[in-house]
Design brief:
Protein name: Undecaprenyl-phosphate glucose phosphotransferase
Family: Belongs to the bacterial sugar transferase family.
Pfam family, one: Bac_transf
Largest sheet: 6 strands, mixed
Shape: flat
EC number: 2.7.8.31
Strand order of the largest sheet: 2-1-3-4-6-5
Strand content: 5-15%
Keywords: Membrane, Transferase, Transmembrane, Transmembrane helix
Order of helices and strands: HHHHEHEHEHEEEHEEHHEHEHHH
Number of helices: 14
Radius of gyration: 26 Å
Helix content: 40-55%
Length: 452
């Protein structure tokens, strides 16, 4: 089994940028508007307004390949809309004619400080990549033509963008079985991103490359031409003036979405731990101990985000046995205790995983993590199984409320689970998480047929 690795966007940069920009916006306002306005009211309204405008205008969607002129246009758009919001808000407290000069001066200073900060971070990251070789992605290109040569030159001549180009492969007149040598190279050299010229590849080669990228957690992008490869949502990006297509859009790669989901996970898991597990754990512990010898909690290694292993916790529902880490519970399993049947039927056995959520190994909602032995087996047998590891695993998930929880009796069960997990990964929203949590709660109350 190969080691799965993937470069990631910086998960901290965007939230830090939000905090610094909001500090500038609110801090400067102290000198202009807080004499007659409640500072808490101002801070809440203006902060909320700034964030909504930023999300709508994509103000913080600045990547390593973003051009300076694009950054500048984003700043102008953000500041113009923010000025209109500020005028509308301050109109309730002031005669705008009397304070218009102060407002414009305030906006100008905010604009200058935000611009300086944004470009400072942008250029510092570029300097860091060039001088220290950090924050970089290793790339390969499939296909040789003018477009791929232009992309190769872009990577080689612009080290400040943080790409280390390793190799370009020509594919004309090559057979599909020769792709295996290329795939071995990608795994051996720990390549992060694959760029494909669609015109240089056959449909079968594209399918093989897509499957390989999905199953090995590699980012796959295309140089577009007139071919239609898939009827799915595609995202255009520009590296200098070269159009690039991203095949899979993962909402949780966005730092703000990641922050929102993590904040929700911390709040939700804390409430469960304080108001449920605090009193339920001693009761379950007594019942488990009265029926059988052994620990109250069951710990098992599972694969999580980016294929990393972590210890997943549950209330012990079986008599201690050497096969617990190898085989799932089946219907009528003699290893399951009497109290174990009850807590498995009601999903109470899963509640300790809220500590995993609090510690950051899991999320409340996401693809269910599998035992390491099962992950290794399914990764080889089930197409696109590894895509599930692009996000954190969950206590519950879309697959579980759609009839694919519990024992995997046939490959059809795991294929269905993967299908729903991929849909969740590509269509995540907080509203979808809430819907899944509600449906999970209802299933626990009614008792799920496959909970045994």
């Amino acid at each position: 089994m190969s080691t799965f690795k993937q470069g990631r966007y910086s998960v901290y940069l965007r939230p830090i940028s939000y905090l610094i920009d909001l500090s500038i916006v609110i801090g400067l306002a102290v000198f202009y508007f807080f004499k007659e306005i409640n500072p808490i009211t101002f801070a809440l309204v203006i902060s909320a307004g700034w964030i909504v405008i930023a999300i709508t205008s994509k103000f913080y969607e600045v990547y390593r390949y973003t051009r300076e002129v694009t950054i500048l246009s984003l700043i102008f758009k953000q500041m113009t809309i923010f000025l209109l919001l500020l005028l509308a808000f301050l109109g309730f407290y002031y005669d705008l004619n009397a304070v218009l000069g102060a407002i414009l001066k305030y906006i100008l200073i905010v604009f200058l400080l935000v611009t300086c900060f944004k470009f400072t971070i942008f250029y510092l990251l570029q300097k860091y990549r060039v001088s220290f070789g950090g924050n970089y992605r290793r790339t390969v290109i499939f296909g040789e033509n003018k477009k791929t040569h232009a992309l190769e030159n872009f990577f080689n001549k612009n080290p400040e963008y943080g790409y280390v180009h390793m190799k370009t492969f020509g594919f004309k007149d090559k057979k599909n079985d020769e792709l295996e040598e290329v795939f071995d190279y990608i795994l051996k050299e720990s390549i992060d991103e694959i760029y494909c010229s669609i015109s240089e590849l056959t449909n079968s080669q594209i399918s093989a490359i897509v499957d390989f990228a999905d199953n090995n957690l590699k980012i796959l992008k295309f140089l577009p031409d007139n071919k239609e490869i898939y009827s799915r949502k595609l995202r255009y990006e520009y590296y200098d003036y070269l159009p690039i297509i991203s095949l899979r859009i993962i909402p949780l790669e966005d730092s703000i979405n990641m922050f929102v989901k993590r904040l929700f996970d911390i709040m939700f898991s804390s409430l469960v731990i304080i108001f449920i597990l605090s009193w339920l754990t001693p009761l379950i512990a007594i019942l488990i101990k009265l029926e059988s010898k052994g620990p109250v909690f069951f710990k098992q290694s599972r694969n999580g985000f980016n294929y990393k292993e972590f210890d997943c916790y549950k209330f012990r529902s079986m008599t201690p046995n050497k096969d617990a880490h190898l085989f799932q519970a089946t219907k009528g399993d003699q290893r399951v205790t009497k109290i174990g049947k009850f807590i498995r039927k009601t999903s109470i056995d899963e509640l300790p995983q809220f500590f995993n959520v609090l510690f950051g190994d899991m999320s409340v909602v996401g693809p269910r993590p599998h035992m390491v032995s099962h992950t290794n087996m399914y990764a080889k047998r089930i197409d696109k199984f590894m895509v599930r590891h692009f996000v954190k695993p969950g206590i519950t998930g879309l697959a579980q409320i759609s009839g694919f929880r519990g024992e995997v009796e046939t490959d059809k069960d795991i294929i269905g689970r993967v299908k729903y997990d991929i849909f969740y990964i590509e269509n995540w929203s907080l509203l979808l998480d809430l819907r899944i949590i509600f449906k999970t709660f209802m299933n626990a109350v009614k008792g799920d047929e496959k909970a045994y």
